[in-house]
Amino acid sequence: MTDPMQDLQDPNLPVPDELKSNIVITSIDKIYNWGRRSAIWPMMFGLACCAIEMICTAASRYDLARFGMEVMRPSPRQSDLMIVSGTVTKKMIPVIVRLYNQMPEPKYVMAMGACASGGGPFKEGYNVVSGVDKFIPVDVYVPGCPPTPQALLNGLMKLQEKIDKQSILSVPWYQPGNGDPVPIPLLGPDLIDLRQLPAIRQHAHKEKA
Ligand code: SF4
Question: Does the Cβ of 85 fall within 6 Å of ligand 1?
């Protein structure tokens, strides 16, 4: 475990040795990101076998509490991170997108395992989505089938690195116009992505002609 005082210290603004345990000189970005990266609350839900590895990661042996991430929330409204752990079926993706829309900003998404990242062994299956990133933005991909708890922890640390590089001046959630919900796909005989409606209509007209 690193010293939190040293984590916050800006290396470009040195503090004399005798004051190091009492004074920290930092920046708004560093303290803003440090607070967020140290208390990421994942949403408590799982989709398939990868979820078992996620549950193992939360147990005492791997101890997510070291990263401030042990508080898995049963509500999207209290979650910062959606870990998509398992096979994403066409029946499930409207629910996943709805949950994503219900999460407040700042929010992050992790695709855990081959299924969530690209369809995995079920890719091209009649009922499976070839990657959750077809519908919602993914920040970190964790490879494996299933990924081990160590791999998931590595993915969480990559997410922390990503947060460290963000600046309060440019983060999307403070930009005007941001915050539009992702359209929830419709489940009919097949899945309809509402963002693709113009292309679907064009194709239908062509077929008719
Ligand atoms: S990636 Fe492998 S372990 Fe994970 S949900 Fe898919 S089939 Fe199961």
Answer: no
Strand partners for 192: 186
Asked whether 38 and 68 are in contact (CB, 8 A), the reply is yes
Element (H, E) at 205: helix 197-208
Residue-level pLDDT at 140: 97
| Token code pair at residue 145 | 């089938």
What residue owns the CA closest to ligand 1's atom 2? 145
Residue identifier of the C-alpha nearest atom 3 of ligand 1: 146
pTM over 0.70: yes
Tell me what pLDDT residue 124 has: 84
Sheet containing 81-85: order of strands: 81-85, 108-112, 140-142
Return the DSSP state at 182: P
pLDDT at 4: 66
Q: Measured between alpha carbons, how far is 209 from 204 in angstroms, rounded to an integer?
A: 9
Nearest CA to ligand 1 atom 5: 86
Ligand 1 atom nearest residue 47's Cα:
5
List pLDDT tens digits, range 32-87: 999 999 899 999 999 999 999 999 999 889 988 888 888 899 999 999 999 999 99
Measured in angstroms, how far is the CA atom of residue 184 from the centroid of ligand 1?
Answer: 24
Which pLDDT score is estimated for 1? 55
Ligand 1 site, residue 181, Cβ cutoff 6 A: no
